[in-house]
Write a structure and sequence with these properties.
There is one protein chain. With 568 residues, the protein is of the alpha+beta class. The chain is built from 15 helices and 26 strands. The strands form five sheets. The chain has an eleven-stranded mixed sheet, sandwiched between helices. Strands 5, 14, 15, 16, 17 and 18 form a six-stranded antiparallel sheet that branches. Strand 24 and strand 25 form a beta hairpin. The protein is globular, with a radius of gyration of 25 Å.
Length: 568
């Protein structure tokens, strides 16, 4: 089939803007509206929901959002595809049927299952399925398709397969649609949300609209948004999202390996960016499996240390807390937020965060928090805490595994109840021994420098993947890229961000994007649910890097790039 498929997105995570579904349906023309609700942490949350009630395990907020707009979607012929099914796609599909009956609507609901795996002692274990099950549901006439754990991009790739009739061997088209799906799956992040240069957006980033990918039969696309909505769609906002939570140039998926180093971005008019040139290769023989286990119990207390002798005060607290509950599982982090000769208490104070993780709920609970509070009159001068004593809470540990594609029973359950097996790809890529990170570029040309924050010249976007972090950095001009690719090495990153120095760091160049991407292994420990870092998902890591004062080439003009440079 020819023509353009307009795929919008109305949710980037479980808890995203509740009105986005209505805004997207009312804002303009769409063929498909997707909603992404699943993250590694979300699967843990849904797993705990299911422990309390086996009938749950899906994103309950989606039902409330759907209630107000299902009729509109049906009237306008907009098909809905969402992974809100989480751990129980069949349960959500049934709940949608009940909702439709109550609203007096005739709706054809299908769902995709087979991702849930039985692993001993695991709270959740789910393989990341591809897009062909979604396509089968749409081919069968579904108005709403509910999935469990599919890859985020599959929500957009599936409708494109159904519209254009792509097969397993249409690798370039599948790769192009995968890029489009990756770009819109985090909602407003591609339209100006979390954007390094938000002050340059027309509305200052106050309320970015949600994105649309206009997918073409060859897999190329145009990224845009509804007219009159906030934010912006530019080559730079698209670049930022393209660098989000990725690794090397090979972007592995269950249907195709997408070569991110082939992606080309071009301006295509106001709030329109064309994405083309994407190449794909056969997918791996295995599927990624996300596994969540309950790791134990955690608690935290924060002491305020004001004025003089901050290190000595912190040392006193550490000794007292360790003596009270024992040292096992304790972590102490001193945040030097204090200023010299400050005129008020807050700016004169540092914060000592004390975390405890333990398999014993009692020890991590009141035994720990009460011991901290008991120091209020028996510790350092000015002792106070920002937290009240409380019980411990359970935490999860995320790990990634792999399973052969042929071992996963990918099934499309059609609107009439027919169960249609989805066969794995016939051609797969051989296993790769390990990552092949790129090396640093040529030595930057010497010349006069000036001191300034790195963020004057570059943007950044960072995020989490289990216990790893990724940090993508892009240059705003060709001249800055010529400098950046030789200057920002792994060693330089360790100098600027000392917390990365102890980690294995992989560095990859993406010249088409004027970008370099770092994968920092193990920075987040056992994952977001168990991390005690101040920034547990590494969302702020890129902005920390941009804030560092470095020697910038004096010849590079700071601020907004010249006309045509950023949106080349």
């Amino acid at each position: 089939m020819t023509g353009v498929l307009r795929v919008g997105n109305a949710s980037g995570f479980y808890g995203d803007r509740s009105t986005a579904w209505r805004e997207m349906l009312d804002g303009g023309e769409l063929d498909v509206l997707t909603g992404d609700y699943l993250a590694e942490l979300t699967m843990l949350i849904l797993g705990r929901d299911r422990l309390r009630d086996p009938g749950l395990g899906y994103a309950k907020t989606f039902l409330r959002q759907l209630e107000g707009c299902l009729g509109t979607a049906l009237d306008r012929g907009v098909r809905i595809v969402t992974n809100a099914g989480g751990l129980n796609p069949a349960g959500l599909a049934a709940a949608i049927g009940v909702l439709a009956d109550r609203l007096g609507l005739a709706v054809r609901v299908a769902h995709v299952e087979g991702d849930a795996l039985a692993l001993p002692d695991a709270l959740t274990a789910n393989a990341y399925l591809g897009a062909f099950g979604i396509a089968a549901c749409l081919d069968a006439g579904a108005d709403v398709v509910v999935t469990g754990r599919v890859t985020d991009a599959s929500l957009a790739v599936g409708p494109a397969i159904a519209r254009f009739g792509w097969g397993r061997d249409d690798l370039d088209a599948l790769a192009g649609a995968t890029v489009a799906g990756h770009l819109i799956e985090c909602g407003a992040q591609v339209t100006g949300g979390n954007f390094s240069f938000f002050t340059e957006l027309p509305d200052g980033g106050h309320r970015p609209g949600f994105p649309i990918a206009e997918i073409h039969p060859d897999g190329s696309s145009v990224l845009t948004k509804h007219p009159g909505t906030g934010g912006a769609v530019t080559v730079e906002t698209v670049t930022a999202q393209l660098l989000y939570e990725v690794g090397g140039p090979d972007y592995l998926g269950p249907d195709v390996v997408t070569r991110l180093d082939t992606v080309r971005l071009h301006p295509d008019g106001p709030d329109r960016v064309r994405v083309d040139g994407v190449r794909g290769t056969p997918p791996p023989a295995t599927l990624k499996v996300g596994v969540n286990n309950l790791g134990g119990f955690r608690n935290a207390m924060t002491f305020v240390l004001c004025g003089l002798d901050i290190p000595a005060k912190a040392a006193l607290v550490r000794g007292q807390v360790e003596a009270a509950v024992g040292p096992d599982g304790l972590e102490f982090t001193l945040a030097r937020t204090d200023h010299v000769d400050a005129v008020d208490t807050e700016t004169a104070s540092a914060l000592l965060h004390v975390h405890l993780r333990d398999g014993d709920r009692a020890r991590a609970g009141r035994a720990f928090s009460a011991a901290a509070v008991e120091l209020a009159l028996a510790s350092y001068p000015g002792c106070t805490l920002t937290t009240l004593p409380g019980d411990a809470t359970p935490y999860g540990v995320f790990t990634a595994d792999a399973v052969p594609q042929a071992d996963v029973p990918h099934v499309a359950v059609l609107p009439d109840g027919t169960r249609l097996p989805v066969p794995p790809p016939r051609t797969v890529a051989p296993a790769v021994a390990g990552p092949t990170p790129g090396t640093a570029g040529p030595t930057p040309v010497a010349g006069p420098t000036r001191r300034g924050p790195l963020g004057e010249l570059v943007g950044a976007r960072s995020g989490d993947k289990g216990g790893d972090a990724n940090l993508g950095v892009w240059a705003r001009t060709d001249a800055t890229w010529a400098w950046l690719r030789g200057w920002l090495t792994v060693d330089r990153l360790a100098e600027l961000l000392p917390e990365t120095a102890a980690s294995t760091v992989e560095r990859y160049e993406l010249p088409n994007l004027r970008a370099v991407n770092f994968v920092i292994r193990g920075l987040l420990g056992p994952g977001v649910a168990a991390s005690t870092r101040f920034d547990p998902q590494a969302k702020a890591l890129g902005e920390l890097l941009r804030s560092r004062i470095v020697d910038l080439p004096a010849a590079l003009t700071p601020g907004r790039p010249a006309a045509g440079e950023a949106d080349r």
